[in-house]
Amino acid sequence: MDDRVYLNLIFDFYGDLLTEKQRYIFESHYGEDMSFQEIGEVCGITK
């Protein structure tokens, strides 16, 4: 199974256990294909 498909299935099941920021980072990286650098700039954190 493709890693992204597997991770998204796990996210669908366990995503509610994550904080809002963690969910945003996961969705941005795997769903919107943003780099960690881009996500860090948006969130104001380092990669």
Structure description:
The chain has helices spanning 3-14, 20-31, 36-43. The chain has 47 residues and is mostly helical. The chain is built from three helices and no strands. The mean pLDDT is 91.
- Average pLDDT for all residues: 91
Tell me what portion of residues adopts beta-strand conformation: under 5%
User: How many extended strands?
Assistant: 0
What is the chain-wise order of helices and strands? HHH
Distance between the termini: 28 Å
Helix content: 55-70%
- The value of Rg in angstroms is 11 Å
Total DSSP helices = 3
How would you sum up the major sheet? none
Shape category: flat
Structural class: mainly alpha
Note poorly predicted spans. none
Summary of the model, kept short:
The chain is mostly helical.
Which short descriptors sum up this protein?
47 residues; mainly alpha
Helix-strand blueprint:
Layout: H1 3-14, H2 20-31, H3 36-43
